[in-house]
Amino acid sequence: MVKKGQTKRQPWVKNLYSNREYPDNYTDASFLKELRMNLHCRIYTLTEAIAGITVLNNQISCITGFLILYQLMLSDSVSPSTILMPSCGITGIGYLCYRGRSLSWSLLGEDSKTLVTVVFFGYLFSPMLHTLTQAISTDTIYTMTFFVLLGNLIFGHYGLDVAMVSKAISLNAAIFGAICLASRLPTSYHAFVLLVEAAVFFVLYPIMTEANWHAGFMVPIFAICCMALYCISRPVLYLYASTTIFLNFVCPFIFVCQQQYKFNIHGPWDEAIVEENTEENLDDNL
Amino acid sequence: MRICMVSDFFYPSIGGVEEHVYNLSQMLLSLGHKIVVLTHAYGDCSGIRYVTGYLKVYYLPIKVCYNQCILPTAVCNVPMLRAVLVRERVEVVHGHSAFSALAHEALMVGSLLGLKTVFTDHSLFGFADLSAALTNNLLEVNLGMVNHAICVSHIGKENTVLRARVAKNRVSVIPNAVDTALFTPDPQQRPSNDIINIVVASRLVYRKGIDLLAGIIPRFKNTPNVNFIIVGDGPKRDLLEEIREKTNMQERVQMVGAVEHDKVRDFLVRGHIFLNTSLTEAYCMAIVEAASCGLQVVSTSVGGIPEVLPQSLILLAEPEIDAIYAAILIAIDRHQKSSFKVSPPVANGHLPSDANGKVKRRRRRKADTPTYPSQLPSSSAPPADQNSPAEPVMCPYRCNELVETLYNWEDVALRTVKVYDRVLQERSFTTSELVFAVWQHGSWFLVFFVVAHFLMRLLELWRPRKRVELAQDIQRTPS
Fold first, then answer.
1. pLDDT tens for each residue of B34-58
2. Residue B394 — very low, low, confident or very high, per pLDDT cuts 50/70/90?
3. Phi/psi at B157 (5° precision)
4. Average of per-residue pLDDT values in chain B
C-alpha cells in the first residue's frame, strides 16, 4: 500500500531500521530481484539418457548371465569344469587388461596371493556352503534369491553419489543369493564353481565396467544373453528382452519429456553450503 | 484488544522465537492490551501460569512429538483450543514460527471461529529438498487461512511470499528487537593487556556454521594475543574441542557451554569482537545483542543479516573461511589502531554498577521515547567503507546508543498493533472462503479441514459459545 501524495520521501532501502516513512507491508520494486531460477539445472538429451541407463541394464544383464550359468549347471547340460576353465581364462585376460602397463612382478605376487587364498578357502569350505541352506525348501530359496538380487540392483553403484548407494550391501546381497542357489546344485564342486562365478560376475566384472564402460558394449551383452535364454526358456527371453528395451528406450524418453517440469528457485535465503569437518579432512584445516 | 499468542516455543525453552513472543507480549501488556500465551506443557510446567507482569500462559497438556513440537494432527486439539479461545474472548490469534504445529492448529481453529489471524514467520526455508517441499505446502495451506503474515526481515518476506504464495500486501516486515537496557557494554571487563577476545555465542550445530569456525580457530594458532570465548553447546562441541586439542590452544579457547540467556551478557562484555558464522538466518538476534554490548561484529553475509545492522556496526564476509578470517583481521587491525581507550564509565553518563546502569537507561529511554521514531539512524551513522581498516572502532557506549535508536520492543509492539488494527477492520473469512482457500493451496488438507469444521459444529451444540464460562481478567496494579 504505497501512500500517494508524499512527494519528498527518502528512497526505500533494503534494511530493517530505516524506511520509517513506509508502511510495514510496503513492497519495493526491488522485491525478489535476487531470485534466481534453475541455477544448477541440467537438461539431458535423449542420447545422453539412453547412454546413461545402459549402466543399469548392464547390471541386470550381469545378474541374468549369472542365473543362466546356474541354470546350465542345474540342468546338467554343461559340466562345471567347462564353465570354470573359460571363466578362468577370461578373468586372466581381464586382469592383464585392467592392470595394463602398471603390471609388475611384485603386484602380480600380491594379487596371486589374494587369488590363491580366496580359491583355496572357497574350495575348502564349498562342501559346507553347499549344505548350508539345503534344509530350506526350493521355493523359499528362489524367492529369497529374487529379493536379494533385487537388493543388489537397488543398492548398486551406478556412478551417482546418493545416500541409497552401498557397494557393501549390494555385493553381500549377491553373494548371499549365490550361496542360497548353491545348495540346489548336485555336488559341492558345482557349488564351488557357482561361488567362483558369483565372484567373477559381482566383484570383478563391476570393477572392469566401472573403469571403462561404453554404451555400445550393451549390444553384444544383450545379444549373448538373448541367445542363451533362447535355448533355455522362451518366456524368460521375452521377459528379459522387453524389460531391457523398456528400460533402455521408454524410460529415458519419459525422463527427457518430464524434464520440462524441472523448476528450482534460489535466492539469498538458501543455506550456505560449507564442507563439513569429518575425521578425514580435519587435519587439512590445521 | 484481546490477543492470543500461540507457539510451541515458549519459556522454559530458550531461543529467538521464545524471546520474541515473551518480549512482544510484555510490551503489548504494558500498552494496555490483554494477552494470553498458548503453548504446550513442558514437563512439570503445565496448566495455567502467570509470569512476569501477569502475563497469562496456558501450558496445554499435549504430548511433545519431535524437537519441542507437538504431533501435527490438525484436528485432535480442536476442542481444547476452541475452549481457550472462547473462554478468553480472544479477538486476534497470533501464531509464531512455521515449525510450530500448535500455532498452525490454533490459527485454523481461530479462523473457523471467525476470529482474525496473524502469523509471524521466523525462519527461512530453501526449496530444494523433500522436507522443505512438504513444510512449504503445509505452510501454504495455513497461510491461505490467515489474515496477515509478519516476517522478521525483507528476505524473510520474499521467502514467505514465494513458498506460501501469499499476496505481497498481506505480508508485513517487522523486525525483532533487543532490550538494549539489558545488553549494556562494560569495557572494564575486557582484558587490560593487549589480548583481544573473540566471542562466539550460538548453539553449536551445523546450521550455525560451526564447521567454518573450526576452520578459523587454527588460523590464530600463531597469534598468542587472540583468544576465543565460545558460549553454547550442541553436537558440534566435540569438533571444536578436538580442534582446540590439535592446535594446542586449550589456554586460549574457552568453551563455556550452555548459558542462561540473561548470563550471556557477562560473556559478551568480555570480548572485543563478536563472530557469527551462521549459514542461514532470518534475522539473527545474537549480532544485535553483541553490537548492543559494544562489540565489533563480524558475520557471514547470509539471509537477512545484511539488513540488520548499519555498516558502521558490522563487518560482513562471505561464508568462507578465508573471507571470514580476513574480516576478523580487519576488525583486529581497527581495534589496535583506534585511539579509543576505556574511558571512565562516569564520563559516558553510566555508572559502573550494572544495576544502576539499567535503572538509568530505563529512565532515560522513557524520557525520549516520544521523539524516537523521527531519529533516523542513517543520519547519525554515515555509511562507512566496509573494508577500510582505517575506520576507527566505535566507542562501546556509542554502539549501544546507536542500536537503541535502531531497534526496541516498544516500536515492534506498536507496529504489531497496527497490523492487529488492520486485520480487525477486515471482514473475517466465511467458511466457503476458507474451503476455497484450502482447495486452492493444497486440496489434501480438506480432509482435515472438513473434520475440524464438523467438530466445531458439534462442539457448538455440545458446549455453546454463549454458555462457556469467561475468564476473569486480573486487574494490574500500576507499577
1. 999 999 999 888 999 999 888 999 9
2. confident
3. -65, -45
4. 85
* CATH code for the domain defined by B187-407: 3.40.50.2000
What pLDDT, on the 0 to 100 scale, is given for residue B69? 84
CA B20, B23, B27, B30 torsion: positive or negative?
Answer: positive
DSSP assignment of A202-227, as one string?
A: IIIHHHHHHHS--GGGHHHHHHHHHH
Which residues does chain B have within 8 Å of residue A14's beta carbon, measured at their own beta carbons? 154, 306-307
DSSP B36-67: EEEEE-BTTB-EEEEEGGGEEEEEE---EEET
The confidence score (pLDDT) of residue B65 equals 85
> What ipTM was estimated for this complex?
0.71
Please check whether residue B137 is in contact with residue B144, taking contact to mean a CB–CB distance below 8 angstroms.
Answer: no
CB contact (8 A) between residue B279 and residue A275? no
- Say how far apart CA A259 and CA A253 lie, in whole Å: 10
Per-residue model confidence (pLDDT) at position B344: 44
- Residue B303 backbone zone (phi > 0: left; psi -120 to 50: alpha; other: beta): left
* Locus of grid cell 504464495: B165
Asked if B403 and B292 touch (Cβ cutoff 8 Å), the reply is yes
What CATH number has the domain spanning B2-177+413-467? 3.40.50.2000
Distance from CA of A168 to the nearest CA of B (A): 27
Return the domain boundaries, chain A. 46-260
CA distance B215 to chain A (A): 6
Task: Kindly list the residues from chain B whose CB atom is less than 8 angstroms away from the CB atom of residue A34.
Answer: 158
Report helix, strand or coil for A52.
helix
Which sequence spans correspond to the domains of chain B? Answer: 2-177+413-467, 187-407
pLDDT at B277: 94
Q: Using the predicted structure, report yes or no on whether residue A279 has a pLDDT greater than 90.
A: no
Three-state DSSP state, B376: coil
Q: Which residues of A touch B215 (CB under 8 A)?
A: 277, 285
Residue B370 in this model has a pLDDT that exceeds 50: no
Q: Do B373 and A286 touch (CB under 8 A)?
A: no
Report angle CA A89, A90, A95 to the nearest 5 degrees.
100
